[in-house]
């Protein structure tokens, strides 16, 4: 005899089954890794561009300041060379100390994570984050210091080379300004491309900043040299 009782609603419940299509494909994971690596490379390149811009502007401003009170080519070149050495050493030491401090912090964090993992206090997500941090690599203070010193030196060489072979005072100042202008536009363009910023606006901002630095240094040195020395 067939039963007339209505079927229980619990009999119609279907448990969700995992969909194999929901798994993240290997190509997407590789794309994420490539995007992460590209981001890290972009940060290094952007830091290198900023270091080169610092070397360019500071050395050119020093040379313009000396050129405001002395027409001697030797004095101008020696001042620029001293600015190159001092600036590169300062950038390298500052970057070394900064990155070494970051390294100490990350090593301490890794040590704490390993202790927590040993004690069974870390969940799966934290362990994966810790593994990703170790795979990403720790910062290298010597590499960062060398990159900063090198980028600063490259920028500082531009006004030095522009003034090294011109004996005429006015032509030498003009050559420095022209070379620095071209380099500032190039650095501004490269920084805008790496930072995904408007190219024209970024280039003009870098150019005007460099011109202001040279003009202020030249004007103040000329004023003090004429009235106080």
From TrEMBL:
Region Disordered, annotated ranges: 114-138
Annotated catalysed reactions: Fe(2+)(in) = Fe(2+)(out)
Sequence ranges of Acidic residues compositional bias: 125-134
KW Translocase (keyword) present: no
GO cellular component: vacuolar membrane
Membrane topology: Multi-pass membrane protein
Residues that span the membrane, as ranges: 44-63, 75-93, 144-166, 173-194, 206-225
Alphabetical GO biological process terms: intracellular manganese ion homeostasis
Keywords for the protein's UniProt record, in alphabetical order: Ion transport, Iron, Iron transport, Membrane, Transmembrane, Transmembrane helix, Transport, Vacuole
Primary residence: membrane
GO molecular function (one): iron ion sequestering activity
Domain of life: Eukaryota
UniProt subcellular location: Vacuole membrane
UniProt record similarity statement: Belongs to the CCC1 family.
PANTHER family (UniProt xref): FE(2+)/MN(2+) TRANSPORTER PCL1
Function: Vacuolar Fe(2+) uptake transporter.
Protein name (Swiss-Prot/TrEMBL): Vacuolar iron transporter
Species annotation: Rhodamnia argentea
Gene: LOC115734681
């Amino acid at each position: 005899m067939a039963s007339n009782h209505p079927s229980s609603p619990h009999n119609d419940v279907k448990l969700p089954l995992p969909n194999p299509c929901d798994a993240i494909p290997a190509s997407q994971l590789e794309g994420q890794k490539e995007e992460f690596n590209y981001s890290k490379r972009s940060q290094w390149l952007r830091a290198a561009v900023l270091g080169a811009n610092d070397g360019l502007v500071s050395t050119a401003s020093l040379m313009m300041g000396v050129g405001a009170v002395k027409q001697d080519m030797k004095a101008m070149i020696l001042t620029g060379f001293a600015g190159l050495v001092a600036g590169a050493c300062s950038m390298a030491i500052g970057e070394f100390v900064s990155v070494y401090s970051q390294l100490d912090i990350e090593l301490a964090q890794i040590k704490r994570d390993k202790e927590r993992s040993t004690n069974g206090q870390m969940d799966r997500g934290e362990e994966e984050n810790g593994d990703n941090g170790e795979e990403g690599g720790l910062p290298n203070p010597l590499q960062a210091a060398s990159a900063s010193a090198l980028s600063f030196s490259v920028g500082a060489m531009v006004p030095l080379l522009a003034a090294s072979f011109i004996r005429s005072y006015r032509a030498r100042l003009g050559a420095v300004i022209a070379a620095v202008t071209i380099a500032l536009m190039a650095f501004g363009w490269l920084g805008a491309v790496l930072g995904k910023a408007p190219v024209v606006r970024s280039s003009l901002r870098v150019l005007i900043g460099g011109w202001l630095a040279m003009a202020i240094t030249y004007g103040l040195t000329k004023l003090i040299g004429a009235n106080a020395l």
